[in-house]
Amino acid sequence: MNADADAAVRTPLRTGRPHGPVHRFELAAVAGVWRRELALYRRYWTTTTFASVVEPTIYLLAFGFGFGSLVGVVAGYRYIDFVGTGVVATAVLFTSAFPGMFSTYVRRTFQHTYDGMLSTPVDTHELVTAEATWIAAKSGVYGCAPLLVAMAFGLPPAPTMLLVPLIAFVTGLGFGLFGILVSALVPSINSFDYIISGVLTPLFLVAGTFFPLDQLPPWVAVLAQFNPLYHCVELVRHAVFGPQPLADLGHVGALLLFAALMWVLAVWRMRRKLID
Amino acid sequence: MISSDAVLGPDHVPGGPAIRLGGVVKRYGDVAAVNGLDLDVPAGICMGLLGPNGAGKSTTMRMLTAQSRADAGEISVLGFPVPAMSKQARALMGVVPQHDNLDEELTARQNLEVFARLYRVPRRERAAAVDRALELAQLTDRQRSRTVDLSGGMRRRLLIARGLVHAPRAVLLDEPTVGLDPQVRQQLWTLITALRDDGVTVLMSTHYIEEAERLSDEVALMSRGRVIARGRPADLVADHAGVRTEEFYGPPRRLAEVERIAADLGFTTRRTGPSVSVLRAEKITPQARERLGQGEARASHLEDVFVLLTGETVE
């Protein structure tokens, strides 16, 4: 131990006191977790951004120009505009469910990051909230990428498009929490394959992203009501092409309900995994 | 000294223990990891929790932070009942886990900044708290290095500094020096001693006898989930193993003979690999010496006590 370290140990400090009343849910706890996420994001923002922007853009270009040259107009819109608005949901799904599953699993199981955090005045529900809202914030930003690309290819801008980040945030929150829930359910990281192929891919395909659901059998349209991505797609299209207030209220309600349900389940499962 | 204006919990009694466990039980299926644990840790001392792997030390540590919930019994930390008010307790407590869970991709400074926020160090004091923790860990020069690039000793120092960044009133150290080389271990011992001298209550689990003897004001010997003896290390040794121990070496037949004679003379013995240790050797009379022969004398230590009381061995 050198003299500096010895002096540091003996330096009076006045930080070792309670910071005021402790509440069941504290934004300060959430902000502490965000601080970590921000530090990591600063290191990896280029790769995160590349993956989050390029992947949906490829979908947009491939389907928009590929199918677009064959189809032309769908549901009254140019196909590239139809897909450009739909792929927002795809971008949101990719930037929320996957980090929710993989990052949470790795941090809990391999890195034991959450064990360290839970030894501080942070509780599981605050930890889950922080992780999910951070994921949702990124989804809110990256979800707009396909829309910007579509605008570059002629999608006319509209003031209500400013609601898209908010729609992407709420959808990302639900799917981020879904990912966290799944991460606390699976026995191993390899089990995510079942979720990706068996749950996320069908959700992603049957959301009205690439084709209108009214072309499919009626029961598919009924099932789609239970698909949060469908509500995201509808909201984004309405934000771009013109709001439908009553229907949109229902879509927002469905997304909020999904997020709330996922929050309760994710907190419950994570608590069982982290607290024995 | 750490600020005395800290508000302690509703169960706090002036002059009372900083940490209290009463009749605590924790089961995993049919296995009782902690089985009726009673332990009071007075404020401002370093209490060593000594026991072999599986004695229940780490489970006890996790219960103090409410990361493990007791099936029975009562726990309080700094006057706060746990788990009911564990969040308040955790705000005043630092935890250094046995396994390194630092964020490898963050720098040393970022790791401390994150925990300063998690511990609610006020914004205006945060930079100073992080600087102090870096000095304490002797990592000021490496504060911009990613944790993955630090040596094992540096990482361990950073892990300890992380648990101290908010100047806690109590610190839980779970096997703080396991796997470290002697030089780093010595540095950490100095750090822990300084903490204790500063009035911080330290509860340190270890399975190193020397560590427990050198650092602890009091030692609690744990075996099979409960405390089987506690006291000042010197007192425990004096009470159970006497001043001196003699080691007798030889072939198995000779060792068996020493054990038989020692038992006949009323001495307690224990097998230590190739030898038999005869405890309280200072009481061997000339007559007894004639029968026993001459062994190699050494000072009695905590390991003698531990093995005597539990029949188990520690490192």
Automatic annotation (TrEMBL), chain A:
**Could you give a single Gene Ontology term from the biological process aspect?**
response to antibiotic
* Top-rank taxon: Bacteria
Record localization? Cell membrane; Membrane
**Does Transport count among this protein's keywords?**
yes
Note the InterPro entries from the entry: ABC2_TM, ABC2_TM_bact-type, ABC_2_transport, Nod_factor_ABC_transporter
Q: Name one GO molecular function term.
A: ABC-type transporter activity
* Pfam families according to UniProt: ABC2_membrane
Its keywords, alphabetically, are:
Antibiotic resistance, Cell membrane, Membrane, Transmembrane, Transmembrane helix, Transport
Q: How does it sit in the membrane?
A: Multi-pass membrane protein
One Gene Ontology cellular component annotation?
A: ATP-binding cassette (ABC) transporter complex
In this chain the ABC transmembrane type-2 domain maps to: 47-273
Q: What name does this protein carry?
A: Transport permease protein
> Which source organism does the UniProt entry give?
Allonocardiopsis opalescens
TrEMBL record, chain B:
Q: Which InterPro entries match?
A: AAA+_ATPase (IPR003593), ABC_transporter-like_ATP-bd (IPR003439), ABC_transporter-like_CS (IPR017871), ABC_transporter_ATP-binding (IPR050763), P-loop_NTPase (IPR027417)
GO terms, molecular function? ATP binding; ATP hydrolysis activity
TM segment ranges = none
Q: Which GO terms describe its biological process?
A: response to antibiotic
User: Keywords, A to Z?
Assistant: Antibiotic resistance, ATP-binding, Nucleotide-binding, Transport
What's the superkingdom here? Bacteria
Q: Where in the cell is it found?
A: Cell membrane
Q: Which Pfam families match?
A: ABC_tran (PF00005)
Q: Coiled-coil intervals in this record?
A: none
According to the entry, every stretch annotated as the ABC transporter domain falls at: 19-249
What PANTHER family does this protein's entry cite?
A: ABC TRANSPORTER ATP-BINDING PROTEIN, ABC TRANSPORTER ATP-BINDING PROTEIN NATA
Protein family membership: Belongs to the ABC transporter superfamily.
Q: What is this protein called?
A: Lipooligosaccharide transport system ATP-binding protein
Organism placement in taxonomy: Bacteria, Bacillati, Actinomycetota, Actinomycetes, Streptosporangiales
